[in-house]
Amino acid sequence: MQSSNGRARGGGDGSERSGEHHHGRGPQFVEAPGEVRYEDPWYDELASGWGEQGTTAPAGSHGAEVPTARRQREDGAVAAAQVYLEVQRSAAFQEVRSRYRRFVGPACAGFLLWYVGYVVTATAAPGFMARPVVGAVNVALIAGLGQFLTTFLLTWAYARHARLRRDRAALELRWDTQELTRGARSGAS
After folding, report:
1. Exposed, middle or buried: residue 48 (CB in 10 Å: 0-12, 13-18, 19+)?
2. Which residues of 155-189 are buried (b: 16+ CB within 10 A; e: fewer)?
3. CB distance 125 to 117 below 8 Å
4. What is the torsion angle, in degrees rounded to the nearest 10, for the CA atoms of residue 111, residue 112, residue 117 and residue 119?
5. Rounded distance, CA 29 to CA 173, Å?
6. Per-residue pLDDT tens over the stretch 61-120
7. Were both Cys, which of 81, 140, 166, 185 would link to 76 (CB 3.0–4.6 Å)?
8. What pLDDT does 86 receive?
9. In this structure, how many other beta carbons lie within 10 angstroms of the beta carbon of residue 113?
10. Chain centroid, CA 28 distance in Å
11. pTM above threshold 0.70
């Protein structure tokens, strides 16, 4: 059987467990069968400060300073993150979010009240819900079908509201954000 690191497992006597300390060495280096040494990732030292500018890798690891290309990528990512924060604080983004909230809050509250009202009425007033309306169709059946109908109506109203009130502004924000992010990443390299 193969272990997760690709090396064959031993005979099961327990001498090759990764958590053992051999010959006074710390837990960072573990010997596998055949005296091959490899680093055990479960016992690496904490990597606080790893990748920060001007710092080196943790003691005992083989890396030195963080490569320049990685640092440039990280600088570009930080610049891109700043772009997203600026867009989030912008008046256009806040307007799109407030339009969204002004529709979704009342719509969810209304639908939840309608659903809870249906469940409570079915539980508390079974005689009312059993009252026939037309033939074998009673109030409960009409109210239950009304639940499905209002779900579809709410979905239609949400899609219409998004199309008419938010989509164009959100698309403009997306394009602006992509352009600013592209400029921030290329300016950081």
Report:
1. exposed
2. eeeeeebeeebbeeebeebeeebeebbeebbeebe
3. no
4. 110
5. 51
6. 554 554 555 555 566 677 777 888 888 888 988 999 999 999 999 999 999 999 999 999
7. 185
8. 86
9. 10
10. 33
11. no
